[in-house]
Amino acid sequence: MKYMSAAQAVQLIESGDSIYIQGSTSIPEVLSQALADRGSELHDVTIYAAFAVGRSEAPYCRKEYKDVFNVKSLFVANNIRRWLADGYGTTIPAFLGEIPALFRDGTLPLDAVFLNVSPPNEEGFCSFGVSADLAVSATECARKVIVQVNKAMPFSYGDALIHVSDIDAAVEVDDPLVEVPTAVPTETDEAIGKYIAEMIPDGATLQIGVGGIPNAVLAALKDHRHLGLHTEAMTDGVLPLLESGVIDNSQKSVLPGISVASLALGSRRLYDFMDYRKDLLLKDVAWTNNPFRIAQNPKVMAINSAVEVDLTGQVCADSVGTRIISGVGGQHDFMYGGSLSEGGKTFIAISSMTEKGISKIRPVLAKGAGVVTTRHMVQNVVTEYGVAQLRGKSLVERARALISIAHPSVREELEREAFERFGHSWTRG
């Protein structure tokens, strides 16, 4: 291993280079700061960032560097969200599962990759730990591989491995990973979780996201049997089901007996659970999120969230009006894969109201809102008031079903809007 200081390692970066910086809860913070410290020496450096949870704003997102670092986000993470909102950076719309192809076919050329990896094992392999996702393809395509060798990084198996001989510069750190607090479900979350859990059969394969509602769903599955895990993001919420044997992966078709994810984010307990665990694989997101691979598993249950849903079933999940707040992620990949799975079901799970008292079920999406999942793909929308089953339903039938699970205070208004939109077909019942 070619160990050196962070300042020395980032000397490999030249003006005009493009860099991928690893995400999840494993942003290589030491390298990112060292790169920012060279801001006065560089120009026209492109930074590709993906889904990530940072401790603070990225050090290269400072106004004095606005003409030095060109930030192009592949998912609007918390550490660059304000920078993009202020107009200093931009985002590239793409399904998460298709981004590796953009690296591999040269659409997004890469000169360097910054990684946060585990110490090497006996065979000389370091692990990317909690973030295979885009890091696998980025490392494959980058000319220069610069890493933090981090004592705090768990060793995970799967695609997220690199031999020390393939590393161009390494910096030793002992930098704790960001921990994401486990969201405690509210009463509303628990009601939604119960509705969804009742529709999940034994032997199902789960794809589930992050937050209070997913945790409520997982908590409600404690009496299920023989569940499987093939997901994009693994969180603390699955640990009780893994430890109790509810998730045993015995009925999956793809890698039976193995839990599969592309990234992980949670507490130190989750990271310790992952360390050197051979029944848990982290895979390239192009592999995990391939809809046709997802569909090979039986009874796929794809559970995702949204910002808002309109009366025809269009789902906005990445923006508030014109302001991009996240990314498409794997929602489309798993909604499609789940719909193709034998016995599969897909869910959009939302509370009926925002914290500001605005209905999440709307006559039309907010001006400028992006459609992440089309009305043609949505099967079930769930709020604390029930389940709207939209599969095979006409626009009028969809509107009636969605109004029935909206907050009672807005149902009359939604009915008026539906009448104005659908005319006589609405009054026919």
Secondary structure blueprint with pairings:
Blueprint: H1 6-9, E1 18-21, H2 29-37, E2 45-49, E3 69-73, H3 81-85, E4 90-91, H4 99-104, E5 112-117, E6 125-127, H5 135-141, E7 144-150, E8 157-158, E9 161-163, E10 169-173, H6 187-198, E11 205-208, H7 212-219, E12 228-229, E13 233-234, H8 239-244, E14 259-261, E15 263-264, H9 268-274, E16 280-282, H10 285-288, H11 291-294, E17 300-304, E18 308-310, E19 315-316, E20 319-320, E21 323-324, H12 331-340, E22 345-349, E23 361-362, E24 380-383, E25 386-389, H13 395-404, H14 408-422, H15 424-427
Parallel strand pairs: 1-2, 1-5, 2-3, 3-4, 5-7, 7-10, 8-16, 11-12, 11-17, 13-15, 14-16, 17-22, 18-23, 22-24
Antiparallel strand pairs: 6-9, 18-19, 20-21, 24-25
Characterize the structure shown.
By secondary structure, this protein is an alpha/beta fold. It has 2 domains: 6-173, Glutaconate Coenzyme A-transferase (3-Layer(aba) Sandwich); 187-425, 3-Layer(aba) Sandwich (Glutaconate Coenzyme A-transferase), CATH 3.40.1080. Helix content is 26%, strand content 20%. The protein is built from 15 helices and 25 strands. The protein has helices at 6-9, 29-37, 81-85, 99-104, 135-141, 187-198, 212-219, 239-244, 268-274, 285-288, 291-294, 331-340, 395-404, 408-422, 424-427; strands at residues 18-21, 45-49, 69-73, 90-91, 112-117, 125-127, 144-150, 157-158, 161-163, 169-173, 205-208, 228-229, 233-234, 259-261, 263-264, 280-282, 300-304, 308-310, 315-316, 319-320, 323-324, 345-349, 361-362, 380-383, 386-389. The chain has a 7-stranded parallel beta sheet, with helices on both faces. Strands 12-11-17-22-24-25 form a 6-stranded mixed beta sheet, sandwiched between helices. Strands 8-16-14 form a 3-stranded parallel beta sheet, with no helix packed on it. The protein is globular and about 75 Å long.
